[in-house]
Amino acid sequence: MSEADDFETLIEPARKLFAGPVSFLKSAPDLRYLPDPVAPEVAFAGRSNVGKSSLLNRLTNRVGLARTSNTPGRTQELNFFDVGADEEGGVPTLRLVDMPGYGFAKAPKDIVRKWRHVVNDYLRGRVVLRRALVLIDSRHGIKDVDREIMVMLDKAAVTYHLVLTKADKIKASELAAVTERTATEARTHVAAHPRLLVTSSEKDMGMAELRAAILDAIRA
């Protein structure tokens, strides 16, 4: 069975997993407040206003699970969500981790510095972190601030998918071009997963594949 065929077999179990219990667990302003490392984690990273909260809500089919805001940089903590816990307080199948958005143009420098330290320390030291998802706005492609987090993940030896967001906002020809450029650049990064994911939270595009990629990450 090829890797593509194996991936396809995960789509239905991934759908069932995310159709089950999903709940907010806690926010961690620094590493002292991290939950016990009892379940595999998949972290979401992305520039402010890349559509991370909207993607999390669509991914889990929960309206308002992750907060959305027109003010970039609202997420200032590591936010943890339990997926697949059989009962309240039970051990979940996995945890999603919403990391602070980067490229915080409107945030004070001391706050930015604190966020960077928290994210860097989490990525380097979290033993249950299985994979990261680096969200890239389809309309803009990879920017220097995205490259910074990609290099950080390379150095931390954390495998990550690049995930194009807002794919419905550009023409098909433009999407094909940015997809090719993104895939080409991903191949130059040692920790980047070869599978590029293209999504639209508004149109539900690529959500089945994204869920399957997350399930694949925790089974790896």
From TrEMBL:
Which parts of the chain span the membrane according to its record? none
Name the UniProt record assigns to this protein: Probable GTP-binding protein EngB
Q: Which CDD domains match?
A: YihA_EngB (cd01876)
For this chain, the family text in UniProt reads: Belongs to the TRAFAC class TrmE-Era-EngA-EngB-Septin-like GTPase superfamily. EngB GTPase family.
Q: Choose any GO biological process term that the UniProt entry carries and state it.
A: division septum assembly
Q: Which cofactor does it need?
A: Mg(2+)
Give Gene Ontology CC terms. Answer: cytosol
The reply to whether DNA repair figures as a keyword in the UniProt entry is no
- What sequence ranges are listed for the domain EngB-type G? 38-220
Q: Which domain of life is it from?
A: Bacteria
Database matches in InterPro entries = G_ENGB_dom (IPR030393), GTP-bd (IPR006073), GTP-bd_ribosome_bio_YsxC (IPR019987), P-loop_NTPase (IPR027417)
Q: Which NCBIfam families match?
A: GTPase_YsxC (TIGR03598)
What's a Gene Ontology MF term here? GTP binding
Role of this protein: Necessary for normal cell division and for the maintenance of normal septation.
Q: One Pfam family of this protein, by short name? A: MMR_HSR1
The entry's keywords: Cell cycle, Cell division, GTP-binding, Magnesium, Metal-binding, Nucleotide-binding, Septation
Q: Which PANTHER family match?
A: ENGB-TYPE G DOMAIN-CONTAINING PROTEIN, MSS1/TRME-RELATED GTP-BINDING PROTEIN
